[in-house]
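Example for tutorial group B:
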């Protein structure tokens, strides 16, 4: 199983959960299962990234304060 499959599966499950959660109900079995699946796949993706020799996302970059700070700032919503 490759990291790209774990990442894609986790993102698809998460987006589908968020887009259908309101219609299905946030406590429905489908929504809760999709949320759990998304979290599990994304956690396994991160574990995979720590263990593989050629990661898709180099987690060691997050240890560099400049990169980590820029990544956090870049996802912040701008204030109007």
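The residue assignment follows.
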């Amino acid at each position: 199983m490759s990291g790209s499959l774990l990442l894609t599966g986790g993102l698809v499950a998460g987006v589908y959960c968020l887009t259908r959660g309101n219609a299905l109900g946030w406590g429905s079995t489908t929504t809760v299962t999709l949320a759990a699946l998304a979290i599990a796949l994304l956690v396994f993706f991160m574990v995979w990234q720590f263990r593989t020799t050629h990661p898709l996302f180099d987690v060691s970059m997050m240890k560099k304060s400049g990169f980590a700070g820029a990544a956090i700032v870049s996802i912040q919503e701008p204030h109007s």
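The two ends are 43 Å apart (CA to CA). Compare this with the pattern of hydrophobic and polar residues in the output above.
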